[in-house]
């Protein structure tokens, strides 16, 4: 006779190959805490509506807590034959107390697994918010130690205009803050209880869904049983938010890789966060940053796998959905580990101020400032752009610095040029003139730093 929990109508158990192919316990066992919390809440509700006596509820609760501590301690025996985390725990419970046979009343693994995953997602998002705040703190700390360092800002990876290093790092603080708000937003839609939806069509038993939601800390209950057991949007959103975070981490990694090259030389990454070459004795490689850049491909892949998994499914639950867990787990694990190691690495980076100063001293970075100065004297911007462009061309031909082009040469381009517009070539003063909100002036950056420190102290 078939001994599975669903064996009633079967004459034999599954083929060994099928059992191996269909099981998920080897990866979904990590949901045990959520699964047990969900079962206790469900059993509690069943006792309130008279399906379980108080004694039966107590026995179930005790048995489940015992199972939980055995899993914590690593002594619980998982069985592949029991397919998944849900049936392993339920079967083990029933071995311990006959009341266990009543636990699955009005419940299906379909609403159960959706509940477990929503609980798990909510818990992990709390962890992520901490890790993202840690990353932001690391960036702020790095910026704070280098408030006087200027670097060229780049577009097209060509030197464009000078900025403070802190301004560049604060750009990442902004990105990681949007990542935080995406997660907070995704959590709102994860915060809905599917339990009570049954396999797909609810239950004839008058379950008190609101009570279960309250016990488990869900804000609401789902409104459509068909949607509730087949909806994976909350996972897609989470995986999408993770993919964006991974892309942000990858871009930061790319900046660090470029900056640590001999060609740039802006930073040195500490030995503890670099590795050597087995062949070239002189090498010190930014592997942590490179692996971070590489991992983003994997997190993007997890999102694509999940979207593809869901796209062709007819209503409602289909077993395909069992494949959702490993992809989401991978996405979450990868981003969490990367945030952790990258934040630690940022504390071990030294800035090479002399090289940065040298790079930013290129007067061409202030060409736009001369055009602006001409505009303030009444020259239309397009004419100003043309005048400075011609001056740059003269400098390129005669191999002189733009700041050293003689006044006579400027006058050849524009006879009426006012010599004091050429006073712009002081990079610190140039930055002090950038006064608007969002601009890289030192005053603005200091205000931004202060406001981030205050906001992050609360996180
Ligand atoms: N392990 C399954 C999953 O992860 C449980 C869901 C229900 N299974 C079923 N045959 N209806 O999706």
From TrEMBL:
<dbReference type="InterPro" id="IPR000362">
    <property type="entry name" value="Fumarate_lyase_fam"/>
</dbReference>
<dbReference type="Pfam" id="PF00206">
    <property type="entry name" value="Lyase_1"/>
</dbReference>
<protein>
    <recommendedName>
        <fullName>argininosuccinate lyase</fullName>
        <ecNumber>4.3.2.1</ecNumber>
    </recommendedName>
</protein>
<dbReference type="InterPro" id="IPR020557">
    <property type="entry name" value="Fumarate_lyase_CS"/>
</dbReference>
<dbReference type="Pfam" id="PF14698">
    <property type="entry name" value="ASL_C2"/>
</dbReference>
<dbReference type="InterPro" id="IPR022761">
    <property type="entry name" value="Fumarate_lyase_N"/>
</dbReference>
<dbReference type="GO" id="GO:0042450">
    <property type="term" value="P:L-arginine biosynthetic process via ornithine"/>
</dbReference>
<dbReference type="InterPro" id="IPR008948">
    <property type="entry name" value="L-Aspartase-like"/>
</dbReference>
<dbReference type="InterPro" id="IPR029419">
    <property type="entry name" value="Arg_succ_lyase_C"/>
</dbReference>
<dbReference type="InterPro" id="IPR024083">
    <property type="entry name" value="Fumarase/histidase_N"/>
</dbReference>
<feature type="domain" description="Argininosuccinate lyase C-terminal">
    <location>
        <begin position="365"/>
        <end position="431"/>
    </location>
</feature>
<comment type="similarity">
    <text>Belongs to the lyase 1 family. Argininosuccinate lyase subfamily.</text>
</comment>
<feature type="domain" description="Fumarate lyase N-terminal">
    <location>
        <begin position="8"/>
        <end position="301"/>
    </location>
</feature>
<dbReference type="InterPro" id="IPR009049">
    <property type="entry name" value="Argininosuccinate_lyase"/>
</dbReference>
<dbReference type="GO" id="GO:0005829">
    <property type="term" value="C:cytosol"/>
</dbReference>
<comment type="pathway">
    <text>Amino-acid biosynthesis; L-arginine biosynthesis; L-arginine from L-ornithine and carbamoyl phosphate: step 3/3.</text>
</comment>
<dbReference type="GO" id="GO:0004056">
    <property type="term" value="F:argininosuccinate lyase activity"/>
</dbReference>
């Amino acid at each position: 006779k078939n001994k599975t929990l669903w064996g009633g109508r079967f004459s034999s158990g599954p083929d060994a190959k099928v059992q191996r192919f269909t099981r998920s316990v080897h990866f979904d066992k990590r949901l045990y805490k959520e699964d047990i919390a969900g079962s206790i809440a469900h059993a509690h509700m069943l006792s309130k509506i008279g399906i379980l006596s108080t004694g039966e509820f107590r026995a179930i609760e005790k048995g489940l807590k015992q199972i939980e501590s055995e899993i914590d301690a690593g002594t619980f025996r998982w069985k592949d034959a029991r397919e998944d985390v849900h049936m392993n725990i339920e079967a083990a419970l029933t071995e311990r107390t006959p009341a266990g046979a009543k636990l699955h009343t009005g419940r299906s693994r379909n609403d159960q697994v959706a509940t477990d995953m929503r609980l798990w997602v909510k818990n992990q998002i709390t962890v992520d918010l901490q890790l993202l705040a840690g990353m932001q703190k690391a960036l702020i700390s790095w910026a704070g130690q280098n408030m006087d360092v200027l670097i060229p800002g780049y577009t097209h990876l060509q030197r464009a205009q000078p900025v403070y290093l802190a301004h560049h790092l604060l750009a990442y603080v902004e990105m990681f803050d949007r990542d935080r708000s995406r997660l907070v937003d995704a959590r709102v839609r994860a915060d809905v209880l599917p339990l009570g939806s049954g396999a797909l069509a609810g239950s004839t038993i008058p379950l008190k869904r609101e009570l279960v939601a309250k016990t488990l800390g869900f804000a609401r209950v789902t409104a459509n049983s068909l949607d509730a057991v087949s909806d994976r949007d909350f996972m897609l959103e989470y995986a999408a938010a993770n993919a964006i975070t991974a892309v942000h981490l990858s871009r930061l990694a790319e900046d660090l890789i470029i900056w640590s090259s001999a060609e740039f030389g802006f930073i040195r990454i500490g030995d503890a966060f670099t590795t050597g070459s087995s062949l070239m004795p002189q090498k010190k490689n930014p592997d942590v940053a490179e692996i971070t850049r590489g991992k983003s491909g994997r997190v993007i892949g997890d999102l694509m796998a999940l979207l593809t998994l869901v796209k062709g499914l007819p209503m409602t639950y289909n077993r395909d959905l069992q494949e959702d867990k490993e992809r989401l787990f991978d996405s979450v694990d990868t981003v969490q580990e990367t945030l952790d190691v990258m934040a630690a690495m940022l504390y071990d980076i030294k800035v090479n101020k002399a090289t940065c100063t040298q790079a930013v001293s290129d007067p061409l970075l202030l060409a736009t400032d001369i055009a602006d100065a001409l505009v303030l004297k009444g020259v239309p911007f397009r004419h100003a752009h043309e005048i400075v462009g011609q001056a740059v061309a003269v400098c390129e031909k005669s191999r002189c610095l733009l700041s050293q082009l003689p006044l006579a040469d400027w006058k050849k381009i524009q006879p009426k040029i006012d010599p004091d517009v050429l006073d712009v070539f002081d990079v610190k003063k140039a930055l002090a003139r950038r006064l608007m909100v969002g601009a890289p002036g030192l005053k603005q950056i200091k205000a931004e730093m202060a406001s981030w420190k205050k906001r992050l102290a609360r996180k």
